[in-house]
From TrEMBL:
<dbReference type="Pfam" id="PF07859">
    <property type="entry name" value="Abhydrolase_3"/>
</dbReference>
<dbReference type="GO" id="GO:0004771">
    <property type="term" value="F:sterol ester esterase activity"/>
</dbReference>
<dbReference type="InterPro" id="IPR029058">
    <property type="entry name" value="AB_hydrolase_fold"/>
</dbReference>
<dbReference type="GO" id="GO:0004806">
    <property type="term" value="F:triacylglycerol lipase activity"/>
</dbReference>
<keyword id="KW-0378">Hydrolase</keyword>
<dbReference type="GO" id="GO:0019433">
    <property type="term" value="P:triglyceride catabolic process"/>
</dbReference>
<protein>
    <submittedName>
        <fullName>Alpha/beta hydrolase</fullName>
    </submittedName>
</protein>
<dbReference type="InterPro" id="IPR013094">
    <property type="entry name" value="AB_hydrolase_3"/>
</dbReference>
<feature type="domain" description="Alpha/beta hydrolase fold-3">
    <location>
        <begin position="102"/>
        <end position="307"/>
    </location>
</feature>
<dbReference type="GO" id="GO:0005829">
    <property type="term" value="C:cytosol"/>
</dbReference>
């Protein structure tokens, strides 16, 4: 895609989707069947915009949600990292062989989620890509509204840049996250770029990220249908995260509005049944237009959050495998200076 806009090299990592034909049609049909069941489950419970943040957290803790439940793994360790507002908890998983470190920033609309909800997925990535995974338990709104979350993520990124070689035996770093975590990954890179540090990260894995809190067309036009995200949910999240008076088109809030020159290679991925579809399409175009290598992976009929269902959904396994392949590619020596 970057060749279309600038002639910059594309990221040579495929989406993993089969070629057009019966195999792809069957994969999409199985995804549709899964989506039907997902919708039925979501509508068994109160919808997010009708609840307070505390109520939504309680519902999710009780399993009353469309999201899968994820247990904690003994192999994971909680570590406290110094931050400007006090210690920041990170969740660390270290495989037997470490060739790099993946800084993961969780999603959750800046309001929900935690670093320990994806231990299984993170361990699978750690083993597949030979990376230590460091997941940030950043401050959540409304208790800690903007800019607390990006401040925490920046502080952890700076800590990792300084400490990764001693702690993990490597300074090869990749950053990534889903949904709000995709936003915070991009914002973190922008902040690091202003300090001359963005090039310390060899890649960015941005998974159905929210890149425009002023709302892209797909966010505005999606409507009330809840497939783990909806227009009213997005408004609910932004209302809690962004205090009155915050410019929603500020690059520190909506990185799609930033000057994106000097960013590392990126894999930007999204499903077609996601209110954030345009965020990824537009961000990939702007990433490439700024001269940065990028791979855009669009998964037909994938909903928001579909990659969280790898135990039940083949489309999720395909996408997650492509993400792991990107991390491996980004850590290779010949790609180290691609984003500098």
């Amino acid at each position: 895609m970057s060749q279309i806009f600038t002639g910059a090299p594309a990221v040579p990592v495929a989406s993993g989707l089969p070629d057009d034909g019966p195999e792809l049609a069957e994969l999409v049909a199985r995804t549709d069947e899964f989506n039907t069941g997902l919708r039925e489950r979501i509508y068994q419970f109160p919808l997010v915009p009708s609840l307070t943040p505390a109520q939504v957290r309680a519902e999710r803790a009780a399993g009353r949600t469309g999201w899968p439940q994820s247990g904690r793994l003994d192999v994971a360790e909680d570590v406290l990292v110094p931050g400007r507002r006090g210690p920041i908890k990170v969740r660390v998983l270290v495989p037997p062989r470490v060739e790099g470190v993946y800084l993961h920033i969780p999603g959750g609309g800046f309001v929900l989620g935690s670093a320990d909800r994806k231990d299984k997925a993170h361990w699978e990535l750690a083993v597949a890509a030979n990376v230590a995974v460091v997941s940030v338990d950043y401050a959540k709104a409304p208790e800690s509204a903007y800019p607390a979350a990006p401040d925490d993520c920046e502080d952890v990124a700076r800590w990792l840049i300084a400490e990764s070689a001693d702690r993990f035996g490597t300074d090869r770093l990749v950053i990534g996250g889903e949904s709000a975590g995709g936003n915070l990954s991009a914002v973190t890179l922008l902040r690091l770029r202003e300090q001359g540090l963005a090039g310390r990260f060899r890649g960015a894995n941005l998974v159905y990220g929210v890149f425009d809190c002023a709302m892209t067309p797909s966010q505005r036009l999606w409507g009330e249908l809840d497939l783990l995200l909806s227009t009213p949910m997005l408004e609910w999240f932004y209302g809690h995260y962004l205090p009155g008076g915050v410019d929603r088109r500020s690059p520190d809030v909506s990185p799609i509005w930033a000057d994106l020159t000097g960013m590392p290679p990126a894999r930007i991925s999204v499903g077609t049944l996601d209110p954030l579809l345009d965020d990824s399409l537009f961000m990939a175009a702007r990433w490439a237009a700024a001269g940065n290598p990028v791979a855009l992976h669009v998964y037909p009929h994938g909903t928001h959050g579909f990659t969280a269902f790898a135990d039940r959904l083949e489309m999720a396994r395909v996408a997650n495998a492509a993400g792991a392949e990107f991390v491996c590619w980004a850590l290779e020596d010949e790609n180290a200076a691609a984003g500098e």
